[in-house]
Amino acid sequence: MGRTGAEPTAAVIGGGPAGLMAAEVLARGGVRVTVFEHMPSVGRKLLLAGRSGLNLTHSEPLAQMIGRYGDAAPRLEAALRSFDASALRTWSADLGESTFVGTSKRVFPSSMRATPLLRAWLLRLGELGVAIETRVRWCGWDGEGQLVLRGADGAQRTVSADVVVFALGGASWPRVGSDGGWVAVFRDAGIDVHPLRPANCALVHAWSDGFVARHGGQPVKNVELAVVGVRARGDVVITSTGLEGGPVYTVSSAVRDDIERAGAAVLVMNLLPDLTTSHVAQRLGQRRPKDSISSTLKRTLRLSPAAVALVREVIGASLPVDPEALAELLTALPVSIDAVASIDRAISSAGGVSLDEVDEGFMLRRRPGTFVVGEMLDWEAPTGGYLLQATFSTAVAAANGALDWLGAQP
Ligand SMILES: Cc1cc2nc3c(=O)[nH]c(=O)nc-3n(C[C@H](O)[C@H](O)[C@H](O)COP(=O)(O)OP(=O)(O)OC[C@H]3O[C@@H](n4cnc5c(N)ncnc54)[C@H](O)[C@@H]3O)c2cc1C
């Protein structure tokens, strides 16, 4: 791709947070930017994320944050350092949404929502001259390497630009736009794309009908989950198909990998993480002769009816009378997991364009002038603001990479 005129041009494909951030940085750098988005409006997943409290980033030290990206950390580190959590917070404040650190050290905009932020951002992008074309779907490249776009009327056209930024997202919640349709097109073009898999998702377990009828939708508070070395603590919710909630999402990638590797996974649930097993046994030993086991659990250990029923459901039998045996179950309940929930309802996607396919500026090695950003790159991270942080950081790094690349062109 060579320079097409005096003022360089950029086509940004995908109007999620990654695409819009790349568009902003490019426009500030003097590039004429057009964003192409196939939905009727941009930023739909960002708005969806805002419905449950938009967790923009995390306030922990940067080195700790970088570690959250696992194997991808070395490849994301430079981007995360140059546009870090404090840069993201400043950017949000400049758009009128100052941020605060919640009790969990997660960072949220003051309104907790994405709507005011997106509204202010779109105004700013308009002022910067960024054009946004909605209901336009990118379908692939033609023989000359031009972008093939299809409008709402089904008509196709080709477009070229000096630089192209792909920001097409993963494949979770496809109804808000990111449907993963790009994977096959990228693979056909010889680009290595690792399969998109659910991340930060619910876990599937076939409960009995009676258990779901009585306890479906109920929380089990303050539990610790453990699976192959990953631990997470918090409240879980019993659903008709299994379990969900913060700690479930945290362990879900480890469960997914375990199922892929071994065909099965067992989640070890500690219903009393503040007590040792022997302490629990000691309390159970104080059972009064007239008390049932259930009422002892409620009285001496303050377990909820849902938690007690969960233990019964998992062991498929009545609770053991022996205090040691029961304490063992309460502190290490082995819940077999049949599967992770489908990607349609996952918070994010693992997999994507292999990081070996891009250089330090996220430019495709096989397609100079073409950049890939956000969730369509192959990295994953837990919830906690890490998803949006890397989405924004890779977009800024790629847009700066694109500006450098444009500057180096004859
Ligand atoms: C319920 C939910 C809650 C979340 N909460 C948080 C949170 O609190 N904190 C956090 O850090 N992360 C959160 N996330 C994750 C976060 O929203 C994503 O990681 C982020 O949106 C990824 O940004 P992106 O721009 O890479 O992709 P997307 O936001 O998915 O944007 C991709 C865009 O590309 C468009 N597109 C796709 N294919 C085409 C095509 N062929 N042609 C044209 N356009 C196309 C899509 O319509 C979409 O607009 C949440 C996700 C979900 C589902």
Strand-residue proportion = 15-25%
Strand order of the biggest β-sheet: 17-16-13-14-15-12-18
Major β-sheet profile: 7 strands, antiparallel
Helix share bin = 25-40%
Mean pLDDT: 96
**Structural class label:** alpha+beta
How would the global form be characterised?
A: elongated
Small-molecule binders here are:
flavin-adenine dinucleotide
Radius of gyration: 24 Å
Straight-line distance between termini: 12 Å
Which stretches are low in confidence, meaning pLDDT under 50 for 5 or more residues running?
A: none
The helix tally amounts to 14
Total strands: the figure is 20
Q: Would you kindly provide a written description of the structure presented here, covering whatever features stand out?
A:
By secondary structure, the protein is an alpha+beta fold. Strand 14 and strand 15 form a beta hairpin. A seven-stranded antiparallel sheet has the order 17-16-13-14-15-12-18. The protein has 14 helices and 20 strands. The radius of gyration is 24 Å and the shape is elongated. Flavin-adenine dinucleotide binds next to helix 1, helix 2, strand 7 and helix 14. Flavin-adenine dinucleotide (FAD) binds next to helix 1, helix 2, strand 7 and helix 14.
